[in-house]
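Hey team,

Sharing the WxL domain-containing protein run so nobody has to redo it. Sequence (206 residues) first:
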Amino acid sequence: MMTSTRNGLGARIGVAALGIGILTALGSGAAIAATEDSVDVSVEIEPNAEPGALALTVAGESAALTETDSIGTDRVFTGTLPTVTVTDTRLAEDVDPAAYWYVLGSITDFAGDADQPDILADDAFGWAPAITAGDPSLVSEGDVVLPGAPFGSGFGDDQELLALADNSAAAAPGAYSANAELTLRTPGTVAPGSYAATITLSLFEG
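Structure output:
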């Protein structure tokens, strides 16, 4: 897959170049022009518009999980991923109609702050993506991933958060957002303490 591209619109600026000659006197005496004429010089400078781009932003830097109801002997912690937005400021005619974009997520294992054993994300973490803004006929959320399913901690395990249901040209220009309910499910014997993991969100276009 290719990483996201930033296809710019070429800003055309017309520039008139004026050559300036320096006339020097040879020997003594002043040089006098025998005849004179003039040339009008003009330039038209178009607005300096920013080129269109495909970009990803996240509305926060962290998410906290808090304990909810247990399932059997397991402990369950939930939270919400900050809103993720894909903004495309390109014009449709400047986008390859065969291209499409998508957002993938991966996560590290949960590391303890006091040498507790790591909580393996593949064993315990999951999410449920949901679209929060944008035309739902053009984009769709990724599949629900239940705790215990592979989740982005190994090669090829990245999970889809948001993706085009059509193509990039059909969705440009526009803005599309999604978040996800995050779930961590651990055995009741999990060591107490603070744990932290990092979710990486990546925007691709291919």
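Confidence is low (pLDDT under 50) at residues 1-31.

Ping me if you want the raw files.
A.
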